[in-house]
Amino acid sequence: MRLEADHAARAAHHSWENWSARDTLTRALARVATDHARVKLRETIAATPKVDPPDALRDASELVELLTAWRWQTVYAA
After folding, report:
1. From what superkingdom does this record's organism come (predicted)?
2. Residues in contact with 44: Cβ distance below 8 Å, sequence separation at least 6, in sequence order
3. Closest among 48, 51, 45 to 11, alpha carbons compared
């Protein structure tokens, strides 16, 4: 069961990181001053998997729940 939780945590973390990266890069694209920087940012955005915001939010919540449970397991063990 712990292996399944580890896999779920990795998948949730990966999903949230992809959403966060695309969001950060998209915001940066609006602020860059040079055409070269815009091209590079667009290439990077295109190469980053797309994750819908509701899915990223769900995955972030799942990750927080897993980490909270693991923290309490560690406190109990200590």
Report:
1. Bacteria
2. 25
3. 51
Q: In tens digits, what is the pLDDT along the chain, a chain of 78 residues?
A: 566 767 888 888 899 899 999 999 999 999 998 999 999 999 999 999 999 999 999 999 988 888 888 888 788 888
Give the C-alpha separation, 60 to 64, whole Å: 6
Query: How many Å apart are CA 50 and CA 26, to the nearest integer?
Result: 12
Question: Which tokens belong to 70?
Answer: 């693991």
Tell me the pTM: 0.73
Taking 3-state DSSP, the helix, strand and coil percentages for the chain, each rounded to the nearest 5, stand at 85, 0, 15
Nearest-10 crossing angle of helices 35-47, 2-29: 160
User: How far is the first Cα of the chain from the last one, in angstroms, to the nearest whole number?
Assistant: 21
